[in-house]
Amino acid sequence: MSSLEASSSGSAALTAQRIEPDEHPEFSDSYNGLEESSEDNASEEEDGDEEEPALRYKRLGGNVQALFEKDTASTLLATERFLVLGTHWGNIVIVDFEGNEVKKWRAHSTTVNSVSVDLDNEYVASAGDDGRVVVHGLYNDDVSIINYSRPVKAVALDPYYNRRGSRRFVSGGTAGQLIMHEKKKWFGKSDTILFTSTGPIQIIRWQDNLIAWACDEGVQIYNTDCSARISQIARPEGSPRADLYSCRMHWRDERTLLIGWANFIQVVALKEPGSGSASGPLLYAEVSIMFRTDFIVCGLALHRDSFLVFSYGDHHIIGTMASDNSDQIPKESRQQRARDAQPPELRTINWNIEEVSSDVLPLEGFPLLQPNDYGLSIGQNAIEADTWFILSPKQLVAVRPRGLADHVQWLTERGDYRQALVDIESAFRGEGRWAIYRDQIKQTEYQEIGQEYARILMDDGDYVGTASLCARVLPRSNTPESVDIWESWVFAFAEANALHVIAPFIPTEDIQLSNTVYEMVLAFMLTSRIDEFRRLVLAWPPQLFNAYSVVLAVEDQLPKLEESVEDQLKLKHILAVLYDRLNQPSKSLRYHLELFTPGILERVQRENLFDAVRDKAELVLQYDDHVLSVQHDKESPLSLLLRCDAEGVQLLTDNTDAIPCASVVKQLVTVPEHLHVYLHALLTKEAHLGAPFADLQVELYAEYNPERLLNFLRLSAYYSFDKALEICEERNLVPEMVFILGRMGDNHRALMLIIDKLRDVPRAIEFAKEQNDPELWNDLVMYSRDKPEFIVGLLELGGTHTANPTVVIQNIPPELSIPGIRRALTNVLHDYHLQVELCVDCKHILDSDCEVLSDGLRQMQHQGIEVENEQLCLVCQLPLDNSTSDEINCAMAFWCGHIFHDKCILLPEVQRKTQIDSLLTVTSGCALSPSMEITKRSRRLIHNATDRRKRLTQAKLDRTMLIRQYGPVCPVCVEYDKKKIQQARSGWSPSERKDRDLSNSNNQDTPATNAEGFERTELPPIQALQI
Prior knowledge:
alpha+beta, six-stranded mixed β-sheet, WD40/YVTN_repeat-like_dom_sf, Vps41 beta-propeller domain-containing protein
């Protein structure tokens, strides 16, 4: 058993706080006798900080006051639903928590000493000095009366009295016996003595299966489950007689019992025995805390982490307690001491045995009252009640912890609005000691307190604090009242020229103010704080203000900021955003391009805004320059190819239908370098689009990229030769001049430029090769005859392919010394022999290829072709074998794979040519040729195939001669060739068609060609097949 003892000198007693009459008017009637002492205390409080009360007191009114006028209270019990009051006249009164009488009956003829209620609040038991215990049903007529003949001081109902048929209760009194009364099933009712004491039973408390009572020996605990007394807590040593100061007990829970003996407080913990104990009680008691006080305990409870003690007297009365044990004190002395009694106090003591607070309660008639006349009751079934009830014979006071509303009121009355707001906000968040009372403060009350504090800050000039406070406390509901409140505060800041402070907190989503308010704020920011203006415009929803009005204001302000480039850029960004909101892409793109907004050109393509950039070609090219300078080294110049591949240039060149080239050139004419980039990109993509600007492009190439001019001159055919030559002559661009002169036909002058200006032999020879002009070669040879380097160059580079080495050598003056002539002549001879060897080798290769192809042709012609009787003739669409059993049909197959009846192919050809031959015979008067006779015979064979077998061989020979004589061709392939020729002719120009017709007429005797112009060899048909 462990105990903690603290004497009055060792306890840290804080300021004993009195209850002022103004704060609690219910005590004003009995407070007059203490005016002098209260004045002294008030003067002490003025010297130091005023401390806020911890508890709130309220005297119960209602008709209970009428009861106290005729009767006095003797005992009290609080439940979850009501209060049970016992009086000295033996009445039991049920009152609500406001003091209104609910029910009343006369249960005893004298003083009621104790009352008890079951958990269901169905039955009320009372014990009185008349020796009776009365159990009365609240909602029925069930009344049980048991008379013990001697005063009964305490009674306790079984918590489950209403639920159990045993109807148990325990009682005790001056007889010193603790008696359990219960209803037996077979034998009626019976009383069982659980304990006998040498003195009276003062108090009984029944919790679940545990019964605790107090007597002269101390506090006893009985377990109803095992029907045994499990523990005894002796009275503290040195405590006064038990009958002088009644014991106070309260079950905090099923395992914790609080005991107050005179000036001692004990906390008893019930624990289960260890695993080693095989038998014995299920629980044992241990005093976990015990300490001495300098006052008499009249009531005891636990509230959160502190003891709540209803006390009587102070250390002066403790000093006289020893003499109270003696019977030698005169009666007059006792009465005088009673008249000098101090009012009771409600003290709060923490677990460190330190007094936290003390409230003096000047209850009515306190000078004549003793400790046993007072009582403290809490909710019977509550572990940690929020309300306690203090009883005196003439008053009933409700004590509650000061809630958030009380705390806030106390702070606001003293002008501490800041702390009030902090505590309210903490409670709303569920933090701090006031969190459980957060429902006591409504949102409107919180807003009113906040606005009052904001006015104070505003008057003090603390605009920053006021703005942050408004953001916290002003309403956010979208109602006209909320809008009015917000607008009034915004205008207040405007009057104080501090709109920049409140601007970040102005609501934009949950609640929307009038457009005038938002535009007023933006106008103020535009002229004073550009950064904040930009932030607000981007952050606020577009519907809050008129974008067009803001645009006009910004455009008016923009010229005034010429000295501040940074601010101009910020306003341009705002204009770009606002024009986008106004759906004016043409204006917004201008500012986006000036600001080099990333991805703006992608947006142009994605949203098809080409018309919007039609007049912004220069800005597009500047955007490209900026992007390239960021991506690459700014110091090194950008290549033309890199600039042409930039996104902006590609945008302009890929969409020439929406962005005309002429419009772009007109815009870029003042920026030649950008114009050069654009025209070069246009040339690489669609050269014909840049044709109108070819002369301009020549000048641009000559100025910015001379190395690319020659290539342009070769590719383009749209520039003026004269103007291009003039430009090249101005800049002395000889290679380009040479090319232009060559295009103009002045080859001699061009050659002279190469020879005189460039003195480049390879170039001169290359130029002569390109022109393929014999006279030009003669000029080159004649010019080179007295120049050794040209002679050697002609021999080495010209060789046998271009210039005739013999002519060059013959024109060499005899006396001219030519270094390197030997090597050059050797190369010429070596080149000549090499060409001869190449020709011979090529001939061998051609002969070999012809032989291989000829062998392949022969093999192909010797191969057979599969023919089925069911196959159809491609002319008559009849089966190849459509004859009767005595007929013999013949078919003709071509190397292309097509098969026909011989009468469908051969007979028409024979008839056509036979008519021509007969016409010639009649005209000339000659006899029929052998071929004519064969032809007649063949006709018979063709039409009469049922001849005898001996004639079959002759028929085959005749058909062979007819095939060789008339050379029939496959009509399918002929028709296909005709269609191909027609398709080809449809794509020819008139001049080409005329040239081809002329060529065909000149080459009628040459082998036939197909539609593509390649030679097509007509293969003879395979011999006729007999089917």
